[in-house]
Amino acid sequence: MDQPIIRIQNLQKSFGTLKVIDGLNFDVMKGEKLALIGPSGSGKTTILRILMTLEDISGGRIEINGEPLYHMTKGGAELPADEAHLHKMRRHVGMVFQHFNLFPHKTVLQNITLAPVLTQGVGRAAAESRARELLDMVGLADKAAYMPSQLSGGQKQRVAIARALALQPQIMLFDEVTSALDPELVEEVLEVMQRLARETDMTMLLVTHEMGFAHDFADRVLFFDKGRIVEQGPPDQIFTAPQEDRTKSFLRKIIAAGQRV
Amino acid sequence: MGDWSGYLTLILQGAWVTVKLTLMGSALALVVAFIAGLGRISGHAALRWLATGYIEFFRGTSIFVQLFWIYFVLPMTGLWAPTPMQAGVLALGLNVGAYGAEVVRGAILAVPRDQYEACTAVNLTRFQRMRHIILPQALPLMLPTFGNNAIELLKATSVVSLISLADMTFQAQVVRSQTGNTLLPFVTILLLYFAMSSVISFAIRRYERRVTRGLDGVR
């Protein structure tokens, strides 16, 4: 078997005295689509934020393509990663946020072309034609010249997906990307992600409260509670025949709230 | 009263000195405000410390005293003897720049954390983040206060009359002592100061409208 694209070993993360991730281990294979589910406060969003280097770690080790993310080797010794190392490693990873985080002072097109031009040395013309392809893919070809404030939430989120894709990361992180949307706008975003999952071999990690979507989207579902993986497996197994009591009670609550799983 | 046009010319010459002081002082204040404001939030402790020291010192002492130090004490070191104009610009720029630095810092910190995180996610360097994302969003927040600062600076220019630089206020005093007429020169400079500050307000407001275009609905 190939080496995993992400390897997480004994990961620890505390905020002050609060332990949010406690001795976490898991591997992700290239091209895998993972759904991370669980009650709020279970640490799933923190894992994505750690992979995007938005949070520091308190202990343990993460490797991406076999290379440590938060450590670097210098003169034979392993040291905590500096900004240059993190900058290099971030090229592999892209992220889409719950609240889109578009740049409000840039047009839709500029939001997408900015980073490829600045960080990857892509020519402006090439970046723009690639951005237009991506906008076409997310169904927003006619919105290139708009400002983000002129778009609906669903449209903003699709632009944010295009912005992340423009950097061609090997790993895409989706952090509750539909939670901030009005219900009628959720579908258009999920459709785009479904198509991405089908048509690309990108590795994707999805934190979501949409169980139905997690079921359709993922190859593997990880159920988290209190900073640990309680149970994991293919979606059919987790959603229809969960083994652990905590998984069962979580899913019961979700179903009681009216969601399809 | 037949000589009034001559006296008016005198006051207008003073007005030109005031305009020059205001423009050059504001330019210096702007540069210093950005340097010190960015220094205040720098990752380097030494830079932070230096910027904080400068800001606290120049906000905490009187502009009169600062001007006297630059004009009278600095030459005693043998390093540099500034002209009255240079001393005036330096004192005004450094004094108002210290206030501006806090405005720059506050505006930068007011840009939501979301924006910093988005920059990390698209892998911008710190410099690129500041230049392309944070400052363009912080600038509209700074402008109203910068406008106030520029007007404060304009009004403070009259301190240079104390080092015998013939600005508008200085010339009005000259006219008063030569003509014995108090009302006319002081009404004239009152109107001129007000006209100048109105120009500043108007210019800032126009610029503000320009840089906030497209940001409506965001703030």
TrEMBL record, chain A:
What are the protein's GO molecular function terms? ABC-type amino acid transporter activity; ATP binding; ATP hydrolysis activity
Q: How does it sit in the membrane?
A: Peripheral membrane protein
Recorded hits in Pfam families, A to Z, give:
ABC_tran
ABC transporter domain: which residues?
6-251
State the GO CC annotations.
Answer: plasma membrane
Q: Does the keyword Cell membrane belong to this entry?
A: yes
Tell me the CDD domains matching this sequence. Answer: ABC_HisP_GlnQ (cd03262)
Q: Where in the cell is it found?
A: Cell membrane
Tell me the InterPro entries matching this sequence: AAA+_ATPase, ABC_ATPase_HisP-typ, ABC_transporter-like_ATP-bd, ABC_transporter-like_CS, Ectoine_EhuA, MetN_ABC_transporter-like, P-loop_NTPase
Q: Keywords in alphabetical order, please.
A: Amino-acid transport, ATP-binding, Cell membrane, Membrane, Nucleotide-binding, Transport
| Family classification | Belongs to the ABC transporter superfamily.
Q: What protein name applies here?
A: Arginine transport ATP-binding protein ArtM
Q: Which organism is it from?
A: Paracoccus haematequi
Automatic annotation (TrEMBL), chain B:
State its location(s).
Answer: Cell inner membrane; Cell membrane
SUPFAM superfamilies for the chain: MetI-like (SSF161098)
Gene assigned in the entry: yecS_1
Q: Which NCBIfam families match?
A: ectoine_ehuC (TIGR03004), HEQRo_perm_3TM (TIGR01726)
Residues that span the membrane, as ranges = 15-36, 57-74, 183-204
Q: Name one Pfam family in it.
A: BPD_transp_1
Q: Name one GO molecular function term.
A: transmembrane transporter activity
Membrane topology (UniProt) = Multi-pass membrane protein
Name the principal localization, coarsely classed: membrane
Recorded hits in PROSITE patterns, A to Z, give: ABC_TM1
Q: Which GO terms describe its cellular component?
A: ATP-binding cassette (ABC) transporter complex
Annotated ABC transmembrane type-1 domain ranges read 15-200
Q: What is this protein called?
A: Inner membrane amino-acid ABC transporter permease protein YecS
Query: Which keywords appear in this protein's UniProt record, sorted alphabetically?
Result: Amino-acid transport, Cell membrane, Membrane, Transmembrane, Transmembrane helix, Transport
Could you tell me the Gene Ontology terms of the biological process aspect for this record?
A: amino acid transport
Similarity comment = Belongs to the binding-protein-dependent transport system permease family. HisMQ subfamily.
